[in-house]
Specification:
The complex is a heterodimer of chains A (381) and B (350). Chain A has 381 residues and is of the alpha/beta class. Chain A has a domain of 127 residues: Thiolase/Chalcone synthase (Peroxisomal Thiolase, Chain A, domain 1). Chain A contains 12 helices and 11 strands. In chain A, strands 3-2-4-7-1-8-11-10-9 form a 9-stranded mixed beta sheet. A two-stranded antiparallel ribbon of chain A has the order 5-6. In chain A, helix 2 packs across helix 12. Chain B is 33% helix and 21% strand. In chain B, helix 7 crosses helix 11. The mean pLDDT of chain B is 97. The chains are: A alpha/beta (381), B alpha/beta (350). At the A-B interface, strand 3, helix 2, strand 8 and helix 7 of A face helix 3, strand 3, helix 4, strand 8 and helix 10 of B.
Chain lengths: 381, 350
């Protein structure tokens, strides 16, 4: 496989409603920043990969078709990826594979969601045969998994609130974050309304309009690059007897494959920063275990000890994560791009000092689609 | 580049309506069984899975998720999905094989057009701010393209009827075709218009269906298939969506993809042309001359949305597998009026 690196990243200012731009304008805002960051122009881009969660969220069938001009894709190959909530991560992995395979030299990956154009709750509530309707939203679906995690791990109730307070404080350091709450506290989170017991309002991701773009290249275009050390994709079915939705096998398998490919034997000591898909606060300790950073049942202890703060042993979501901005289709790519920014040293006020290796992680569906990558400041051996 | 070949292909019958649920994933189980069984493989032998389908066709978000159940994907699999015709999923799988991470891939696509009103659903593909609110009918749009070509002298209603007659005749040897039989262009020209200058036979039928293709690299392909269809060129391009700025009688994306993929010298081509005039346009764009086009009957004999392009590649590969051709072309299109085009050139080696 040929080496490939992220050479530029860009994102929009995320907000509940970006009424100032169309879908094309939203994408272009992120693309223009990524291209400028990479120092490349349209003739330097060989192909475009667009990722987005379901088309019903905006009410447009295959929006990449009408966006072809805005994406700069006319006359070039254009691929559209859709793997539910993990789509942003998968988009990055597919774009990476186009360079790693030697098919293209430089690829633009873009992901977006403009949820304000439509009604996401409606889009997820179409009655379908043989499938339990999720009329209560994603929180209603995941709350039982969270409760099960708390029971199994014996985790104290305040851990979820700690994650929420940390991520929102981190978000306040990120100029692009939707929610900026520098003064949030564990107490204020615990005082917020219970939505889907045990998930409170302040432990829930917002619904955002936003986009993210990255340029992946076979050769660096400047003195800094985030080299792709490993990628992984794994999928399992939504429901079947014996499926462990608290600690899905697909996530474990993906992580194992990822660490192996990256040459990492002890993730907790060898990874410097992580951007993990945490739409509800308790998914931080759950995914720390699923990813193999800790033993089963121990994830919450890392969080409780403050080790997942910026400056801790394993900073998780220094950007503020999905809890601070959630343009669904773009959320995975934001995790991957933020990981790249950390190892390129371009994360500004939420930079983790000396980050040389970082994880980008995304999951989707009923915790069944997983996409991950490890990026590093050094070219892989 | 690594040597990668199409080694297996299976498809459902093309039918007007299946009994299955709205997304149609039930169609997948028998064809997975057929394609894997034919190669002596099980699902655990597949390194990478990729699919193509559409949420809007199924009228539901995440319609592809149920397909994971049809696979029986436990232990977990390495998998991805494109919201496009599955020919593009095949492209993604081919790239994955080029990375050297895996040696086999299974690609599938499925579409149940009968779940909704296809003409109206397709209007959702257009610019949502300025075009979709007018709800242009997909047959009406194709009619504009056909009319422009007629007025430019590029094709005629008779030439279009001849394409339809040839498709129906060719489909007589295809037991999975939805429409087949001997018809004369004269009789077809007596039929009324559905969207002037298009008559019913000028338009692909509304079809439910699914198909699957297996790819393998190098020696693995030689083990699995006596005469693999080696992919020697695989390219796709997109044109502007703007009808007003695009020459609707040309297809720059098809021309560019055909040239880059090395379409010269193919003996058989399976073209994804949902309208008769589009077959004429594409034959020209790809420089096909007088070769055999659509020996399966093409999509005018059955057009399972989101897998019809993949089926074209499978049908073309089959001509290499059975030794009737040594260089073939499979083509897929997507988007309104041939906006996006993909060309896969395959060769047999003796």
């Amino acid at each position: 496989m040929r080496p490939a690196a992220v050479v530029g990243t860009g994102q929009t200012h995320h907000a509940a409603k970006r009424l100032d731009v169309s879908m094309a304008g939203l994408c272009r805002e992120a693309i223009d920043r990524a291209m400028a960051d990479a120092g490349v122009d349209w003739p330097d881009i060989d192909a475009v990969v667009l990722g987005k969660a379901p088309d019903l969220f905006e009410g447009v069938m295959m929006p990449e078709l009408f966006l072809a001009d805005a994406l700069g894709a006319v006359g070039k190959p254009l691929l559209r990826v859709h793997t539910a909530g993990s789509v942003g991560g998968t988009t990055a992995n597919v774009a990476a594979s186009l360079v790693q395979a030697g098919v293209h030299k430089r690829v633009l990956a873009v992901a977006f969601e403009k949820q304000s154009e439509s009604n996401a709750m409606w889009a997820l509530s179409v009655p379908t045969p043989f499938t339990m309707p999720v009329h209560a939203g994603a929180g209603g679906y995941f709350a039982p998994h969270v409760r099960s995690y708390i029971r199994r791990a014996g985790a104290p109730e305040h851990v979820g609130a700690m994650v929420a307070a940390k991520d929102r404080r981190n978000g306040a350091r990120n100029p692009y974050a939707h929610l900026k709450q520098p003064d949030i506290t564990v107490e204020s989170v615990r005082a917020s309304q219970m939505l889907w017991d045990p998930i409170r309002y302040d432990e829930t991701c917002p619904s955002s309009d936003g986009a993210c773009a990255i340029v992946i290249s076979a050769e660096p275009t400047s003195s800094r690059a985030a080299w792709i050390h490993a990628t992984a994709l794994r999928t399992e079915p939504t429901t079947f007897a014996g499926r462990d939705q608290v600690n899905p096998r697909a996530g474990q398998d993906a992580a194992r494959a990822l660490w192996k490919q990256a040459g990492i034997t002890d993730p907790l000591s060898e990874v410097d920063a992580t951007e993990i898909y945490v739409p509800f606060s308790w998914f931080e300790p759950m995914w720390l275990e699923n990813l193999g950073f800790t033993e089963i049942g121990q994830g919450w202890k890392l969080t409780e000890a403050g080790e997942t703060e910026i400056g801790g042993r394993l900073p998780v979501n220094p950007s503020g994560g999905v809890l601070s901005s959630n343009p669904i289709g773009a959320s995975g790519l934001l995790r991957f791009a933020e990981a790249a920014m950390q190892v390129m040293g371009t994360a500004g006020d939420h930079q983790v000092d000396g980050a040389r290796r970082a994880l980008g992680h995304a999951y989707g569906g009923g915790s069944q689609f997983f996409a991950m990558w490890v990026v590093g400041s050094e070219k892989p051996a | 580049m690594r040597d990668v070949a199409v080694v297996g292909f299976a498809q459902t019958p093309c039918v007007r309506e299946t009994d299955g649920t709205t997304n149609g994933v039930e169609m997948l189980v028998p064809i997975f069984h057929e394609v894997l069984g034919g190669l002596g493989l099980t699902k655990s032998d597949i390194g990478f899975w990729c699919s193509g389908s559409s949420d809007y066709l199924a009228g539901r978000a995440f319609s592809f998720v149920s397909a994971v159940d049809a696979i029986g994907a436990f232990p977990p699999i390495m998998e991805s999905h494109v919201e496009m015709d599955a020919a593009w999923a095949l492209y993604e799988a081919w790239v994955k094989l080029q990375c050297g991470e895996v040696d086999t891939a299974l690609v599938y696509g499925f579409g149940k057009s009968s779940a909704g009103q296809l003409r109206r659903v397709m209007a959702m593909q257009l610019d949502p701010y300025v075009v979709t609110p007018l709800w242009p009918d997909s047959l009406g749009l194709a009619g504009i393209q056909a009319r422009m070509g007629i007025e430019d002298g590029l094709w005629s209603e008779r030439a279009m009827a001849e394409v339809a007659a040839r498709s129906r005749a060719a489909a007589m040897s295809n037991p999975l075709a939805q429409l087949s039989g001997p018809v004369s262009p004269e009789d077809l020209l007596d039929e009324p218009y559905v969207a002037d200058p298009l008559r019913r036979h000028d338009c692909a039928p509304i079809t439910d269906g699914a198909s699957t293709v297996v790819l393998a690299a190098g020696d693995r392909a030689r083990e699995l298939c006596e005469r693999p269809a080696w992919i020697t060129g695989f390219e796709h391009r997109v044109d502007s969506p703007s009808f007003g700025t695009r020459d609707l009688t040309a297809s720059p994306s098809a021309v560019a993809a055909g040239k880059a993929a090395g379409a010269d010298g193919v003996e058989v081509a399976e073209l994804h042309a949902p309208f008769t005039h589009q077959e004429l346009l594409l034959s020209q764009a790809l420089g096909l001359g007088d070769i055999t086009v659509n020996p399966s009957g093409g999509v005018l004999a059955g057009n399972p949305m989101f897998t019809a392009g993949l089926s074209r590649i499978g049908e073309a590969a089959r001509r290499v597998h059975d030794g009737t051709a040594s260089k073939v072309l499979g083509h897929a299109t997507s988007g309104p009026l041939l906006q996006q085009n993909l060309v896969c050139v395959m060769e047999g080696r003796d």
